[in-house]
Task: inverse folding
């Protein structure tokens, strides 16, 4: 058992890391709150004083605010559905014995380690370019008119790019969960005459519920702040502007730090609402 002395020593050794982590999180948050109540224009007069809640009212009353929130939630929801559904299928396939299984698993997981800007540029120029992209050649081969993905299907393009990047993460987590499944339980159900679909629905899927919950929570946290993929593909045009991109425009393009800071507070509120919803509705699986 740990003694009082050892517990005190452990706390003392952890204290610097905890203080650094708290500072890393609290200092930007405090500065965001501070500037959200000020009219601060770095290139147009600097600090122009306190404005109270004017920045919050201006940001939420902007014609771009609610469409950006809807776009954000649409992208997050679609990516979650795609990555979890395909992740389960890929995890089941990768769990089967095959030639070169280790190499196949590495190739499937590899896209997760590609930088978001790089993967977005690859998709934009190599696959989705209306003149020279692979999809354009496929469309022409089947006698169809090539699609200008970035303008005609901007949301779908971003969902496709982000799903491709996050699918390996979901697959890896779900594959680990499948490998921990008791094979004797599956064999017993097979001997009792259960079909493959029934075994999946009543045994495999309930076993994956905790892993699916982890994937949901982690991916949602990162997807709510999606930015790089939009920046290098559509630039926020054609209805693809998310809340994060709207904040970027207010801070850097409009040089209005106060207005952008108010948007950052709204983004924090949105992230907490979504996180609480997921923890209450889906996160209960972690307690089972």
Result:
């Amino acid at each position: 058992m740990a003694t009082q002395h050892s517990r005190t020593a452990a706390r003392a050794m952890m204290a610097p890391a905890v203080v650094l982590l708290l500072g890393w999180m609290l200092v930007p948050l405090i500065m965001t709150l501070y500037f959200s109540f000020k009219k601060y224009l770095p290139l147009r007069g600097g600090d122009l004083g306190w404005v109270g809640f004017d920045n919050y009212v201006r940001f939420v009353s902007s014609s771009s605010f609610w469409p950006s929130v809807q776009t954000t939630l649409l992208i997050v929801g679609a990516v979650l559905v795609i990555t979890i559904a395909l992740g389960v299928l890929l995890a089941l396939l990768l769990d089967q014995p095959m030639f070169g299984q280790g190499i196949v698993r590495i190739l499937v997981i590899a896209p997760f380690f590609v930088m978001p800007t790089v993967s977005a540029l690859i998709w934009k120029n190599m696959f989705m370019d209306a003149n020279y992209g692979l999809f354009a050649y496929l469309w022409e081969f089947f006698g169809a008119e090539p699609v200008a993905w970035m303008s005609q299907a901007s949301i779908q393009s971003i969902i496709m790019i982000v799903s491709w990047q996050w699918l390996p993460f979901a697959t890896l987590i779900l594959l680990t969960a499948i490998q921990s499944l008791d094979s004797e339980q599956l064999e017993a159900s097979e001997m009792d005459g259960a079909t493959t679909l029934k075994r999946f629905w009543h045994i495999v899927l309930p076993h994956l519920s905790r892993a699916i919950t982890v994937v949901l929570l982690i991916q949602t946290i990162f997807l709510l702040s999606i930015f790089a993929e939009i920046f290098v593909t559509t630039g926020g045009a054609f209805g693809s502007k998310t809340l994060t991109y709207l904040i970027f425009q207010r801070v850097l393009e409009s040089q209005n730090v106060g207005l952008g800071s108010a948007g950052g507070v709204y983004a924090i509120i949105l992230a907490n609402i979504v996180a609480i919803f997921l923890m209450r509705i889906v996160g209960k699986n972690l307690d089972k």
